[in-house]
Amino acid sequence: MSKFQENIKHLIPRPKTPVVKPPMYRSIYTESVRRTYKSNNNLHKTMGYAEVELDPPSQFLKKHTRKEMRPFVEINKTKCCARKSIQRPCDGATTNASKKLPTKTRKNIRQTNIIDVIRRVPPLPKHRVQDTRNGHIIVLNEAGLEPTYVSKKNYGKTPSYIVKMYKEKKMAQLMETERKRAVKPSLRYLPEDERNELLNGLKTNWAELHKEFLLLPMLTDTVPKMKRKTMLEKQLNNLEKDIDLLERNPSIYVCQDV
């Protein structure tokens, strides 16, 4: 039958047959693994304990602070080669059989070097960093990139010369304060009667100068007239300032006469 021909059988939808899946695989060790996982056995066996007491910040890790265990080497006492000394009698003297000359022993340098090498502590590895993918290596201590001053005894402390300078400065300030206290005050309080007497005298002088200023001619066409007028105005202004100062300030201190 061609695909372009219509069939009545295809008009009625056919029910889909359900796909039956096989049961999911379950291992026989599932329950034992679950029980072992929940039992919390050997939790710190690989990574250690979860909470470890840390050292305080003052006890930070310092260089050359770990304990160096030197290997124990048992030294066997070996007979060193000794050259026998030949005793020769001195001229004009009899040889004494009871007296023997001391023998010279040679030092076994090879054995000494072997013992020194065995007992020598191996050097610590250098703190190196590789900064490029081509293998370029930088030694931090030699390049000045590793902090070395924090391990010094005087790190974070004020230098002694600065402490001495502060003490000298403080002593100088105390001596200056004591000297100022010992010196008598150079000011004295101006009594009310002296203040009034001074104020009246200033007002009298101002009145006399004002009278002279009013007697000046109206036309100041010469230099002497201009100078006199300017001088009187200046004196009047100074007197007015002094009078205003005394009137505004009832309490006044003046310098003592030396």
TrEMBL record:
Keywords: Cell projection, Cytoplasm, Cytoskeleton. GO terms for molecular function: calmodulin binding. Pfam families: Enkurin. Residues 162-254 form the Enkurin domain. It is found in: Cell projection, Cilium; Cytoplasm, Cytoskeleton. PROSITE patterns: ENKURIN (PS51665). One of its GO terms (cellular component) is axonemal microtubule. The keyword Heme does not apply. InterPro entries: Enkurin_dom, Enkurin_domain-protein. It comes from the Eukaryota. Transmembrane segments: none annotated. The keyword ATP-binding does not apply. PANTHER family: ENKURIN, ENKURIN-RELATED. This is Enkurin domain-containing protein. It comes from Aphis glycines.
